[in-house]
Amino acid sequence: MLHIVNKSPFEKNSLQSCLSCAKEGSTILLIEDGVYGVLKNSAVSDAITGAMKGMTICALEADVKARGIADKVIDGVKLVDYNGFVDLTCDNEKLQSWL
Amino acid sequence: MTQKKFLYVNRKAPYGTVYALESLEVVLIGAAFEQDVRLLFMDDGVFQLAKGQDTAGIDNKNFSPTYSALGDYEVTKIYVDKQSLEERGMSLDDLQHLVWEDEDDDWAERDSIVLVDRSEIKEIMEENDVVLSF
Known about the structure:
The structure holds two protein chains of two kinds. In chain A, 31% of the residues lie in helices and 20% in strands. Chain A is an alpha/beta fold. Chain A has a five-stranded parallel β-sheet. The longest helix of chain A is centred in the C-terminal third of the chain and has 10 residues, at 82-91.
């Protein structure tokens, strides 16, 4: 299953709720302000690295670059472009957007 | 015109919402009317000052270079909450280097950004005539 989060984890708890409800094997895609979740050494980075043991964490590269944080992304996070975004939505039978 | 002290409190990340851009525009207008303007960036607002922003891929205007013009508008006090930076794995080095030129000291360049803690923010909020929150 694909979970999409578009809100900053420092302002809303969408990412935290998503991580606690997503099953192993899921893919989490962070877009828009959601990409702040992949910052190294932040208050939520442990939750992300913990989730990476059983899930794939992706972030939309254009949103990462727009926000100037491309060199501070947690190792192991997969950066995807818009085509990759489309592929993820096609490859996963189910999708949930955490608004 | 009477000069008042304005504090603009910026708490939103850029691009996800329009608050950051709107705030910047109001700040520049206030400064153009020769009001005493100071800025505070806290919570996700600290992301507005991140250096290296490149919005080519998201069809948004990159307005972050405009912050470097604030010094020319005599906006010389830009407060950044230390705790907000730390929670986000960020430090002063991750922010743009913003400066202003000191007329009274042969136009020497001075840093505009001042890192502050919450006890200092309490005082900063009290010492202004008008607080505008974005």
